[in-house]
Specification:
This protein has a domain at about 5-175 and about 205-230 and about 280-285: NAD(P)-binding Rossmann-like Domain (Rossmann fold). By secondary structure, it is an alpha/beta fold. The strands form four sheets. It has an eight-stranded mixed β-sheet with strand order 4-3-2-1-5-6-7-12, with helices on both faces. Strands 8-11 form a two-stranded parallel ribbon. Helices cover about 35% and strands about 20% of the residues. α1 (about 10-25) packs across α6 (about 210-220) and α3 (about 80-105) packs parallel to α4 (about 145-155). The model has no long low-confidence stretch (mean pLDDT about 90).
Length: about 300
């Protein structure tokens, strides 16, 4: 039985990923600040790490065959004050440093590290008709998120110096019923309003959480996978199209455009990401052999809205 060590294992993606790994017969260790004991009836273990102090339970590194690194302060959880932006960067940089340094300094048998990243790596689509989608070869954008993703990926990639296979999944908007963006899209619909953000033309590159979880497992099991992959579905769609398709699941709704200046007042700097159009290619993950369970926004939303 192979062991997978997960950081961020109690978050939106981590919870579902843990369950999927256990179902496939993997042994799972979750890194937390508390390092709780195994809960009665649970089939996974807890180990302790402290990103600020750069400490980690050495037994967890020693027993791991694979590491999945998801931990990091939520990007959309709070308004982007300077303090919050520092927290977002430090949590990713310091967490990645602790994992990479542990692999360099401690005895271990780790075969691969699969790290989260984000399509925030890329800037906005060029202002031309039908721009080419961003690929993994495009440079990081000169922006807060672009710089954060670059630092995040650069540090975890240093594990390659000790012969580790490193995979970075640049993740799009994750669609899930357990939290995240889809729940924010649904909130106005509870009042019969389909809230189209700005002009609604901005492209959303998204992924169903089931596909994202299976991509992490594919990255463990496919030894040919290494480097960056865009974890997005092959069906980027405009904010307006997405919102209206979701709204049609309700019997009555009124489409309303939320002006850009309102979003800027409410969200501050984070509004840049909400209004940004980002068409991102999934060709590389398809070429690796991955087959999407939910390749279209219709199939993804139909599934999530029936649950």
């Amino acid at each position: 039985m192979e062991t997978v060590l997960i950081t961020g294992g109690t978050g939106l993606v981590g919870n579902q990923l843990r369950q999927a790994l256990l179902a496939k017969g993997y042994r799972v260790i979750i890194l937390t600040r508390q390092g709780e004991a195994k809960k009665p009836g649970s089939s996974y273990l807890f180990a302790q790490w402290n990103v600020e102090k750069q400490t980690i339970d050495e037994w967890a590194i020693a027993e791991a065959d694979y590491i999945i690194h998801l931990a990091g302060a939520g990007v959309a959880d709070k308004r982007w004050t300077e303090k919050r932006k520092q927290e977002i960067v430090k949590s990713r940089v310091n967490g990645s440093k602790l994992i990479a340094d542990s692999l360099k300094m401690l005895p271990n048998k780790v075969k691969a590290i699969i790290s989260a990243s984000a399509i925030g790596w890329y800037g906005p689509d060029p202002s031309i008709p039908n721009p080419a989608p961003f690929t993994e070869n495009d440079p990081a954008d000169d922006s807060f998120l672009g710089d954060t993703c670059k630092k995040w990926e650069e540090i975890i990639t240093t594990a390659e110096q000790v012969g580790k296979r490193v995979v970075r999944l640049r993740t799009g908007i994750v669609l899930s019923n357990s939290g995240g963006a889809l729940q924010e899209f649904k909130k106005p619909l509870n009042f019969g309003v389909a809230a189209i953000l700005g002009n609604g033309k901005q492209i959303i590159s998204w992924i169903h959480i089931d596909d994202l979880v299976q991509m992490y497992i594919a990255a463990i099991e496919n030894e040919k996978m290494r480097g960056a992959y865009n974890a997005v579905a092959p069906d980027p769609i405009s904010n307006k199209q997405f919102t209206l398709y979701l709204a049609r699941k309700k019997k009555f709704f009124i489409p309303v455009h939320v002006p850009s200046f309102i979003l800027k007042l409410v969200l501050g700097e984070m509004s840049i990401e909400v209004l940004k159009s980002a068409t991102v290619s999934c060709y590389k993950i398809l070429a690796s052999g991955y087959v999407f369970q939910y390749p279209t926004h219709q199939s993804a939303l139909d599934d999530l809205c029936k649950k």
